[in-house]
Design goal:
117 residues, alpha+beta, Structural Genomics Hypothetical 15.5 Kd Protein In mrcA-pckA Intergenic Region, Chain A, 5-stranded antiparallel sheet, 4 helices, 34% helix, disordered N terminus, stress response
């Protein structure tokens, strides 16, 4: 996998290539909406991604914190895309805890007695 560290890749393009978002347009919307933070700060879609940068991004109810390990602007298979970043251990633990709480909440919620409407 080629690294373009000298040239740099836009943040929206990197997020798309790393398969966090399905299209660059969606990645751009998430960045502009404040759902993606680059090294702890809000950013613009045109920000050039650097190696070892820390990205915090929200996908639905999940929030991930990842370290950038490689830079590419090409969308590759998912197995190769996962080599572009590494999720932090704290992020994984937090996501699992939130998922468990969401699951427990769904199990304890009683169904409505009558249909809505």
């Amino acid at each position: 996998m080629k690294e373009k560290a000298a040239e740099g890749v836009r943040l929206d393009k990197w997020l798309w290539a790393a398969r966090f978002y399905k299209t660059r347009a969606v990645a751009r919307e998430m960045i502009e909406g404040g759902k993606v933070h680059y090294n702890g700060q809000r950013s613009k879609p045109s920000k050039l991604v650097e190696l070892n940068a820390v990205l915090t991004l929200r996908q639905g109810n999940d929030e991930r914190t990842v370290n950038v390990l490689a830079i590419t602007g090409q969308r590759r298979p998912a197995t190769e895309a996962t080599q572009l970043y590494e999720e932090t251990a704290e992020s994984i633990a937090k996501r699992e805890k939130v998922a468990l709480a969401r699951k427990m909440n769904a199990l304890t919620m009683a169904p409505p007695r009558s249909p809505p409407g």
